[in-house]
Amino acid sequence: MSNGQPLIEIKNLKQYFNINMGLFKSKPLKAVDDVSFAIKKGETLGLVGESGCGKTTVGRTILHLYKPTDGEVWYNGKQIKTKEDIKNFRKKATMVFQDPYSSLNPRMTISDIIGEPLDVHKMYANKKERMEKILDLMEKVGLNSEHASRYAHEFSGGQRQRIGIARALALEPDFIVCDEPVSALDVSIQAQVINMLDELQDKLGLTYLFIAHDLLVVRHISDRIAVMYLGKMVELADAAEIYDNPMHPYSQSLLSAVPVPDPVVARSNQRIVLSGDIPSPLNAPSGCPFRTRCPYATEACAESMPEFKEVKPGHFVACHNLDKANN
């Protein structure tokens, strides 16, 4: 992992969707609300949180699959603004989607699915070179060359996700958004795909934003972990630091639910069960979005969103009552 300039930098990113409330009224759904972070070259940043907290929207907005409502996306020290910037950025940044069943076109052969990015960006001189590139990509992700003429429905979930990863690697990107790439797979297959992503990162110098809700998977692959709740970033630190010393009450609750293989340790672990349900992002609470479920909430939490600040080197938290939460 290098300590130079960040490869990807996100500054005050916002993604609001206008929801029609009937009678010509609409209301903004704040899917991502003022999120900032940076990812260094060769690093994996894990992004975790409950379903609906805005993780996937962050990934898609970085790649400009959604036009950001506000905020800035920087790649290699250059801000992505114009259509030309986005086009060039998409050669270097790509995505592995969550569902290997719906992200592959059932009418296309595997060679056409993997070759599609090459076709779009005209990355070959002739058909022979195109096929050589496709077979090389298939080999990288552990697929046989005889699979090239088959269709997606002939493959298992794990193999389909490998096809999706081969397609993502077609343009030799630097940065890949992995959107819950293993959540639809069996546990044994998850390990294979995670290990393959690890090996590809070492071999090709890739940088990942790894989105997931399974904290054990995230710990295995991530250098640093960011925790999101209702569109806001609440904590960010090194993976080991977040696991050993979570400081935000929400992170503490999430990590208390992670299963431990040792029964003695598991019995002594205290589950922190949160009261209430997640509020709707359409009617998010004022101030800190977590305050309605937080055991330490005070009036200050209702009045203002706590600042996302560095409380010790490399460990950022947004909480008004850190002293209470970390007694």
Lay out the secondary structure.
Layout: E1 6-22, E2 25-40, E3 44-48, H1 55-62, E4 70-75, E5 78-79, H2 83-92, E6 93-96, H3 110-120, H4 127-140, H5 157-169, E7 175-179, H6 187-204, E8 207-211, H7 215-221, E9 224-229, E10 232-238, H8 239-244, H9 249-256, H10 263-268, H11 299-303, E11 309-312, E12 315-317, H12 322-325
Parallel strand pairs: 3-8, 3-9, 6-7, 7-8
Antiparallel strand pairs: 1-2, 1-4, 4-5, 9-10, 10-12, 11-12
Helix pairs in contact: 3-4, 3-5, 4-5
- Percent of residues in helices: 25-40%
What is the end-to-end distance?
Answer: 34 Å
Strand sequence of the main sheet, in spatial order?
6-7-8-3-9-10-12-11
Class based on secondary structure composition and strand pairing: alpha/beta
Order of helices and strands: EEEHEEHEHHHEHEHEEHHHHEEH
Number of strands: 12
* Radius of gyration over C-alpha positions, nearest whole angstrom: 21 Å
Task: Please outline the major beta sheet.
Answer: 8 strands, mixed
